[in-house]
Design brief:
This protein is about 70% helix and about 15% strand. The protein is of the alpha+beta class. The chain folds into two domains: about 5-40, YefM-like fold, CATH 3.40.1620; about 55-110. It has a three-stranded mixed sheet. Strand 2 (about 30) and strand 3 (about 35-40) form a beta hairpin. Helix 3 (about 45-75) crosses helix 4 (about 80-85) and helix 4 (about 80-85) runs antiparallel to helix 5. The longest helix has about 35 residues, at about 45-75. It is elongated.
Length: about 110
């Protein structure tokens, strides 16, 4: 169960709260004027949150790229996906990665 403290208590007991977080593998919620404002968490948990955040950001980026590719193909139906990405100005590295992702998605939809 997360511990909840005021910001003034967090300031006064910061080291103790960091230690508690590491030992209990739990979070400390810091309230500012009675409202949750921040969280103290273990570094390993932070790393997991960052992995999830980056994965979601990548998913959104790939979805936006797919939408751009689809629009380019609607306007030029004879284009391949690779040509559409190239016309949209994507780097070869991005094109390669996006095409691999497209292939994986197509395989899972079968």
């Amino acid at each position: 169960m997360p511990k909840t403290v005021s910001s003034s208590e967090a300031k006064a007991r910061f080291g103790e709260l960091v230690k508690w977080t590491a030992e209990h593998k739990d979070n400390v919620i810091v309230k500012l004027y009675g409202e949750p404002a921040a969280v103290i968490m273990s570094y390993s948990e932070y790393e997991e949150v960052e992995k999830i955040r980056k994965r979601e950001q990548k998913r959104k980026t790939l979805e936006a790229l797919k939408e751009l590719r689809d629009e380019a193909q609607r306007q030029n139906p004879e284009l391949t996906a690779e040509e559409a990405y190239r016309l949209a100005g994507f780097s070869e590295e991005v094109i390669e990665e996006t095409l691999k992702t497209d292939q994986k998605l197509a395989a899972t939809k079968l």
